[in-house]
Specification:
Length: 681
């Protein structure tokens, strides 16, 4: 895990060192820093530029040269030292301001529209120099600032040099978002037009801020943001996503304590920064460890959906957002489920767009690098979005399709394989049902006679360890799956994509070994390409010898060579199988995305031997099962890379044998959305 966290920190350093940072060092540690980048990739001064010809080009990911761009307006950027701003809780937040500069590097007075980024990952650690594309991480972005924007980067409560202790997007942290907006509005360099943006944590704070200050936030560009904290990530299927929580909580605490570089550069802040850092270290005992203990022992507030998770779920209050909003997600991102739902919550009320990329969490925001107009569609679309909604420019946003999504196995090559549509799920999608048969077959023919049952034993439980580091300065939370899922695409996904960088293991992208002992169901070879897009649902009839059980359902493409290519998956604890039909998704009368209550009130323990229907939500995707390949549904008793059992749940599952039923009375099946190949535009 330490290796994973170090990789994330190194990625931040790469962004600074390899993407257009200043070649000049400040003469004093606390001196304000200015940049005057004039490289050809930044100046954008070619007379052939579409922007100069008065005909800006809009989103067209299959042709990066056709993306929107315009020349820089200012020759340099000015990076001010870190400083503190007060908030209503009585605490102070760390803040970094970046302004357009003249040819001598002197900051210009403005006023300018402001791009606000609020981070849990230590702004001071990652913002010593400017970098095109840095805006997604809160790093001063020379590309945007030189095009007429002021940029404000802020550490949230408990992060970086900010005071207080971090509490997972809690109410105090959210109060800080509002206070920050109020402070920005009062500054002379702000013209009153504020946009919020960022990737991951910073995308989440953007959504919360737009909800809490709807009259002040004029535009949102949220990359890979959270939607539903319980269903989308922390408690998928009613289990605890401990691999992710271990990585994320440890990373957040680690970055919050790395303040020595800033103290050396700005010694005048040393007493305040040292005190804040000690608060963050003390928070291990005050908050982190008690929270982990509660989760492991099945504390009801954490084990079930509750107000704790609702407060931390942007999807709860998306109706408060009034600003035009662009949501960017990815097919194997942490928030794979949530990005489309966030878009849907906005599309009928505000100017909204959805872009779904390929890849996982880290690889998604790394697509913003190195930040040149030829290689960075993400940054160009962000400029296009803010130019229109913060500056009133005719940037052509009306020609950005409502939905742009990547399709796996469609077109090879960088920035290839995207299609556009008027809505999500795809308007041409039709529900189709594939039935699981006792002989391992998967067909669209419903069973007409009794078929053999198939069984599987409960998996050994995951191992875990937590506490402080040896020196007492860092949080330690480590999860070790015992079911082989640490060698799967799920493990790459829930380690934020870092596992796929630190360990190049073929089993991450080939599940043949992982699913060797699973209950597999396969179609005959596809006679032609088969395009699926949107959410999926597995309706599996099962029984158990114990009062609870776990059902993991993976959807794969099996190539003629035998390679098993993972596409997407779902997970569900049997006792939390109850579905709120009023909030579930139906397409032409078929439920394709169940909404589980996940509350203690709706918990239903199994009666040993009784057959029940498990409606398993499988996270949405967009992929082609290629001609000659087979579609596979793989069922196993766990996916610990995505969810583990707490101690209460373990007692209920231990020693159980699960039976999967087939036949006319128990027609186990997979429901998906099929899209005509003609829609591959």
């Amino acid at each position: 895990m330490v290796k994973h966290q170090c990789v994330v920190l190194c990625l931040g350093a790469l962004l600074l060192g390899g993407c257009g940072g200043s070649s000049e060092s400040p003469s004093r540690p606390s001196e304000e820093r200015s940049l005057q980048p004039v490289s050809a990739s930044e100046s954008n001064s070619s007379p052939e530029s579409p922007a100069e010809s008065g005909d800006p080009v809009t989103l067209q990911l299959d042709d990066a040269d056709s993306l929107y761009h315009r020349p820089a307006e200012y020759p340099g950027v000015h990076i001010a030292p870190m400083r503190y701003i007060p908030i209503s809780t009585g605490q102070k937040l760390g803040m970094r301001l970046t302004l357009p500069a003249d040819e001598n590097g002197e900051p210009l007075p403005g006023p300018f529209p402001v791009i606000l980024v609020q981070s849990g990952y230590n702004i001071g650690l990652m913002s010593f120099a400017a970098a095109p594309g840095g805006v997604f991480l809160g790093i001063p972005d020379s590309y945007l600032v030189r095009r007429g924007y002021a940029m404000v980067s802020v550490d949230v409560i408990g992060g970086g040099i900010s005071q207080g202790g971090w509490e997972l997007f809690g109410e105090k942290e959210q109060a800080g978002y509002m206070d920050t907006v109020d402070w920005v509005k009062a500054q002379p360099w702000c013209n009153g037009d504020i946009g919020v943006t960022g990737a991951s944590y910073m995308g989440i704070t953007s959504l919360f801020t737009a909800q809490l200050r709807p009259d002040d936030v004029k535009a949102v560009f949220a990359s890979v943001p959270l939607g539903d904290a319980k269903r989308g990530i922390v408690g998928t299927g009613g289990l605890l996503n401990a691999v992710f929580m271990g990585e994320w909580m440890a990373l957040t605490h680690l970055t919050s304590t790395q303040n020595v570089p800033l103290m050396l550069l700005q010694p005048e802040l040393m007493p305040q920064v040292m005190a804040a850092t000690q608060e963050h270290i003390d928070h291990i005992e005050d908050y982190y460890l008690p929270l982990i203990e509660r989760a492991i022992h099945g504390d009801a507030e954490l084990a079930y959906d509750s107000a704790f998770w609702r407060v931390r779920s942007p999807l709860e209050n998306m109706d408060r957002i009034q600003a035009p909003t662009l949501i960017a997600g990815a097919l194997n991102d942490l928030f794979q489920r949530d990005a489309p739902l966030l878009y849907e919550s906005l599309r009928d009320r505000v100017d909204a767009r959805l872009i779904l990329f390929d890849g996982d969490h880290v690889s998604n925001f790394l697509q913003a690098l190195p930040g040149t107009e030829k290689t960075d569609p993400v940054l160009h679309v962000l400029l296009q979005w803010f130019d229109r909604h913060l500056r009133g420019m005719d940037s052509g946003t009306e020609r950005i399709p409502p939905v742009t999504q990547y399709v796996k196995h469609y077109k090879p090559g960088n920035w290839q394989g995207f299609i556009s549509a008027d809505n999500w799920p795809h308007p041409a999608a039709q529900p189709e049902r594939w039935y699981l048969h006792g002989d391992g077959g998967l067909t669209q023919q419903a069973p007409f006679q009794e078929e053999v049952e198939r069984t599987m034993a409960a998996a050994p439980f995951a191992e875990y360890a937590y506490g402080k580091s040896k020196d007492g300065g860092f949080l330690r939370l480590e999860i070790q799956p015992s079911d082989g899922s640490d060698c799967s695409l799920s493990y790459v996904q829930w380690t934020l994509g870092v596992a796929g960088i630190t360990q190049i293991r073929p089993c991450y992208w080939d599940h043949r070994e992982l699913e060797q002992n699973a209950l597999n169901y396969e179609t005959a070879p596809m006679p032609e390409d088969y395009f699926i897009a949107g959410p999926l649902q597995a309706d599996v009839w099962m029984s158990s010898t114990t009062e609870d059980a776990v059902l993991s359902v993976r959807v794969d493409e099996v190539l003629a060579s035998g390679r098993v290519v993972p596409i997407t998956n779902g997970l569900l604890l049997a006792s939390l199988r109850a579905v709120d039909e009023s909030r579930s998704r139906y397409v032409y009368g078929e439920m394709v995305q169940p909404y589980h209550f996940l509350t203690q009130e709706h918990e239903q323990l199994l009666t040993p031997g009784e057959v029940v229907k498990m409606q398993v939500e499988i996270f949405p995707t967009s992929a082609i099962i290629r001609a000659g390949s087979r579609l596979r549904v793989s069922i196993s008793p766990s996916n610990q890379a995505q969810g583990v059992l707490n101690l209460v749940q373990r007692q209920r599952v231990e020693g159980g044998v699960t039976t999967i039923h087939h036949g006319p009375q128990y027609p186990s099946s997979l429901a998906l959305l099929s899209v005509p190949l003609s829609e591959l535009n």
